[in-house]
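A.,

Following up on our hallway conversation. Structure tokens first:
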């Protein structure tokens, strides 16, 4: 997404009443959470505050796999790895069935079949996140 479009998107969200903004990212190669937040601030360049950025210690791609069970994974053409707490981008790429042209296509297909309850049960960091940031009624 181009910088101008990102800035317009964030400004639009911030202009809405009763709407919060939370950017979720992972550590990637950063040595600490602060550097990860700085990387996000630099790439988006829209003045995110510390309270608007949440860094997941592990790779966030694990959350996508955690939200499907064995039946759903087989319907997508792969065997579920079971343990999703240590999934990396590289492992997700090895798991991705080739019928999905890209990792993004695969992740969108996972989201189509996602169950938050399944994800909460299969991934410790997703369960932690959902416990700290529950959905508001009506949201």
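Then the amino acids I'd put at each of the 139 positions:
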């Amino acid at each position: 997404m181009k910088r101008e479009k990102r800035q317009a998107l964030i400004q639009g969200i911030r202009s809405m009443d009763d709407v919060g903004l939370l950017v979720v990212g992972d550590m990637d190669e950063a040595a600490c959470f602060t550097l990860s937040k700085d990387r996000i601030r630099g790439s988006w360049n829209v003045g995110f505050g510390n309270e608007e950025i949440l860094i997941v210690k592990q790779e966030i791609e694990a959350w996508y796999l955690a939200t499907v069970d064995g039946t759903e994974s087989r319907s997508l053409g792969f065997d579920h790895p079971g343990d999703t707490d240590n999934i990396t981008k590289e492992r997700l790429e090895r798991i991705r069935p080739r019928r999905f042209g890209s990792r993004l296509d695969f992740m969108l297909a996972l989201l189509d079949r996602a169950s938050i309850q399944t994800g909460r049960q299969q991934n410790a960091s997703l369960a932690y996140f959902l416990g700290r940031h529950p959905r508001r009624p009506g949201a």
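The chain has two domains: 3-57, 61-129. Curious whether your intuition agrees with the design.

B.
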